[in-house]
Amino acid sequence: MSSTKYIEEAADYLKQRGFKNPEVGIILGTGLGKIVENIEIESEVSYNHIPNFPTATVEFHKGKLIYGTLEGKKVVVMQGRFHVYEGYTLRDVTFPVRVMHLLGIKHLLVSNASGAINLNFKKGEIMLIDDHINLQGSSPLAFRGVEKMGERFADMSAPYDTEMNKKLELIASEKNITLHKGVYASVVGPQLETRAEYRYLKIIGADAVGMSTVPEVIVANHLKLPVSAVSVLTDECNPENLKPVDIADIIASAEQAEPDMITLFTELIKEL
């Protein structure tokens, strides 16, 4: 079976379960699931019921695809995402983006939890991703037959949609939300970085580091799907004063910043 067939099977299954013409796709990161409470849910399906879909293995990721109305728009939300560190391939990780695109989404919004490399950024604040560095060692487009799905040599000169990013910055200033702007570096994980790695990330121009998002953004660009992404900064990565990181603390920081992220996304969806 071609991977196109896999994507079509998953999309057909979801259409039968009421996932009709969603306009916006949303991918929720670690500790960032509460936006779902703002949605009038019409249908939800566990990942393990969707044909060919990977299954979430991280304990604090939910593992459900949710369809409903948010601010008058039909949305499809990934509550729980996939990571390379769980043993998935980059094609597995990005499979849901291709499925959501086939369902009809016109915009993609992505959130993640990440560590602040830029020490002017503080824990509990939010960063709008302006650009990224892919340190995951491969590409979700590196497979035979990719040209059947879009341009093999996808242009990445402006991977994040300028128009949506401008709107997010405007919303942040109107709502008094601190919204930094910077470069996100995506690593494999799951181990956190050493002091030397944090120094290296700073030298190469990263403002924040995480273990997701970049593969989905590459595929969105391959599909010519406008995408914006925000990082909730859950820890400060100062190599000169590095303390052991507690995952419970990361989740708590994500939850603290989550209301601001929800405001940004809901207000943006209103305007799309």
From TrEMBL:
Residues 24-270 form the Nucleoside phosphorylase domain. InterPro entries: Nucleoside_phosphorylase_d (IPR000845), Nucleoside_phosphorylase_sf (IPR035994), Pur_Nuc_Pase_Ino/Guo-sp (IPR011270), Purine_phosphorylase (IPR011268). It comes from the Bacteria. This is Purine nucleoside phosphorylase. Pathway: Purine metabolism; purine nucleoside salvage. GO terms for cellular component: cytoplasm. Belongs to the PNP/MTAP phosphorylase family. The lineage of its organism: Bacteria, Pseudomonadati, Bacteroidota, Flavobacteriia, Flavobacteriales. Keywords: Glycosyltransferase, Transferase. PANTHER family: METHYLTHIOADENOSINE/PURINE NUCLEOSIDE PHOSPHORYLASE, PURINE NUCLEOSIDE PHOSPHORYLASE-RELATED. It comes from Aequorivita soesokkakensis. Its EC number is 2.4.2.1. One of its GO terms (molecular function) is purine-nucleoside phosphorylase activity. The keyword Disulfide bond does not apply. It is an enzyme of class 2 (transferase). Pfam families: PNP_UDP_1. NCBIfam families: PNPH, PNPH-PUNA-XAPA, PRK08202.1. The purine nucleoside phosphorylases catalyze the phosphorolytic breakdown of the N-glycosidic bond in the beta-(deoxy)ribonucleoside molecules, with the formation of the corresponding free purine bases and pentose-1-phosphate. GO terms for biological process: nucleoside metabolic process.
